[in-house]
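We were asked to recover a plausible sequence for a given structure. The inputs and outputs are reproduced exactly as logged, with field labels preserved.

PROBLEM: sequence recovery
POSITIONS: 108
GIVEN STRUCTURE:
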């Protein structure tokens, strides 16, 4: 079996305290909860979560990089590596994409 990564339908940055958080979205079905892939970071980008895009025919699939990883800004401020800040990043991405309900997926 060959896996083919699907290009994002939407990609961009969300501004927040400490810098910009990069995200990508596949799938537009707003009637279903979005699957949001959470990396096992800090330090890990969205790349290993790409298999989640296989669900984009049924749910919007959102992958993002936490600050200091992947395509996001790298301010180097480890004081921002807190649960509160990580939840804030997810909330800013959710709000910017107008997503109501989320299914959080964490693959460690």
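RECOVERED SEQUENCE:
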């Amino acid at each position: 079996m060959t896996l083919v990564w699907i290009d994002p339908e939407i990609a961009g940055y969300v501004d927040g305290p400490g810098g910009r958080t990069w995200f990508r979205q596949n799938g537009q079905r707003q009637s279903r909860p979005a699957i949001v892939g959470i990396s096992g970071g800090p330090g890990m980008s969205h790349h290993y979560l790409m298999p989640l895009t296989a669900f984009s025919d049924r749910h919007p699939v959102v992958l993002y990089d936490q600050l200091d990883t992947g395509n996001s800004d790298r301010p180097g401020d480890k004081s921002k590596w807190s649960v509160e800040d990580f939840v804030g990043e997810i909330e800013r991405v959710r709000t910017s994409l107008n997503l109501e309900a989320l299914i959080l997926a964490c693959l460690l």
